[in-house]
Amino acid sequence: MAMFLDHYGTLAKADRQLQRATAHGWYLYPVPLPRSADDYRTYEVEITGLS
Predict the structure, then answer these.
(1) d(CA 11, CA 34)
(2) Is 31 strand, coil or helix?
């Protein structure tokens, strides 16, 4: 949840996106990054549907 809250900025938006993702069977697993997190680009995404 902390990752979603950090990314989406508000609890309402983060909770909505997290529930949508898990409802479709998406699970987040922590993995070590090969480089510093600052070396990666981030993009805002919204899950609108999965088939």
Answers:
(1) 29
(2) coil
> CB-hemisphere CA count at 13 Å for 24?
11
Pairwise CA distance, residues 9 & 24, whole Å: 22
For the chain, how big is the Rg over CA atoms in Å?
A: 12
Q: What is the pTM of this model?
A: 0.45
Tokens 């998406």 correspond to: 26
Digit-coded pLDDT (tens) for 14-28 = 888 888 888 887 777
Instruction: Find out whether 20 and 47 touch, Cβ atoms under 8 Å.
Output: yes
Q: Which of 3-7, 12-16, 45-49 has the highest mean pLDDT?
A: 12-16
